[in-house]
Amino acid sequence: MVEVDLSQPPFSFLDEEGRERVRSGIDLAYFDRDEIILETGQPGEFVFLIHKGEVAELDTTQPGSRERIGHYTAGDLFGAISILNRKSRYRFRAEQESLCYLLPKALFLQLCDDYPPFAEFFQQTLAHKARLLTEQRAEGGVTMAGFMLARVSECMRPPLCMGSATTIAEAVARLHESHADSLLVENGDGAGMVTKTDLLDALVLQGRDKESPLQEIAHFELVTVRPEQYLFEVLVMMTRFKVERVVVMEQERPIGVVELTDVLSFFSSRSYVVSLQVEQADTLDALFRASRRTPELVKALMAQGVKLRFAMGLLAALNGRIMSKAWGFLIDERYHRDSCLMVMGSEGRGEQILKTDQDNGLILADGLDWPDVGEQMQRLTETLIELGYPPCPGNIMVNNPEWVGSVSQWQERIARWAAKRDGDSLMKLAIMLDSHAVAGNPALLDRVRLSLFEQCSRDEILLSYFARTALRFSTPLTLFGSLKKPQHGIDIKKGGIFPIVHGVRTMALERRINQTSTLERLEALAADGRLEEKVAENLAEALSLFTELRLKQQLKRLEGDVEGKSPDRVVVQELSSLERDLMREALHIVKDFKQSLSQRYHLEYT
After folding, report:
1. What positions does the domain Cyclic nucleotide-binding occupy (predicted)?
2. What is the pLDDT of residue 139?
């Protein structure tokens, strides 16, 4: 009987009896350097599990420089799809002397029949495999099921509802009796909310009579959720919209209320208190202290297996609140309505978890008189540096007059960039396309974005120039075979993240999609029919995988484990077998996406 490690997928889907059948049925074979193990078109007779050595996967239909599409090392598996499809689509060649375990076709097919999860592994999409990886990484007592799958219905309180004619005195008595902090006010147009603070302000600050109706003080612009939504989404929404309560709606009727304290209690890790500390900060010093805890929050999210999309959403909202609070402390309130602070780049897309270089700008209402705006923006930039956001090497910051201007000035800049179409102008258009308002009046940014769409979305030549940048960096599939030294690795940002982000950004520009998040843009493109739903899902999962691998490198740098290494460089040999499998699939998805971009925007002619 051959001894082999069967603790990893897909063999982990077998029970002990199934694994014993594998151990009893496999053999060990030697392949010399450059020996063809499996030829294109050859019927699959074995599943190969590499014990030692390296194997290249080659697409013989491609020219020599592009034929290498995959690379397998110890612990990797190949040949299963050749059995299921009855022939091999690609050639597999030993890159060096290799030892492989051979699982015969008949035994493999028997295992597929006897263990459906084992069989399903080979048919799974990238999204399914990525979920498996996330579940494997979950540590401690909080699992994917307990942490990420908690629903709003599990945490909501029954609503305390009163009629719009109810008096303030009656409402105070009812709240005192029920030990609640808020109540819903119902009228013919929908529900509104009144909190204890609203009642106190009405009586003490506004001087209202205690017999005044609740209709006069209720807030009817509510943040609402559905009972089946994930509770983690609610935490993101509360942070983004600066509220401590959301109303749960079903069939246009309020059925519950979720409060921030309930959500934070549900997620018992004290790291989640960071959101509350940011919100409660009433001085810059308090904001500094809360802001310094965000790396702790990131580590807790990753350690507990939180799906990256939710983690990015929470941290983007949190970073936005930190900047908004800083803006509120520093900028005179009389300028808030006539100005808009925007963030750009990965921060604008909500795809940066750890704090990185500042990319921000300022839009002013036409005719606004703000004599010391330059001094105020310099102070804001310095404050953001103290909060942990380093200065931008390209000087794309509000203390640079080039990134401050009125609505009309921004519209003129966009028209000029669109006309020039050189590298610098196209970069600035891309930066503006990703801009997101974090403080002030977001309507000013909406007007500027509308001008950008009007200038660019129908210009086929401009779109072709714009899209070409997505092909700037080669997909690193052909580099796998040479990554043998520990100091080498794949630049995951250039090879994986950037082509997806910029390609999707180009399509969003063409379709005039307002969302700035790449994941939300993918959903909008799928809904619009511009992308197949499966393609959009695979691109989203590929982007999440690349981002997570990059984040792991960044966290290691914070801990001093990879000093001197680029945070964008992922060493293949340090990945698990499943991670390498996911990496290969994700890079194939990027390669196919770049080919479709090339055809859509005629990049083969540019």
Report:
1. 10-89
2. 40
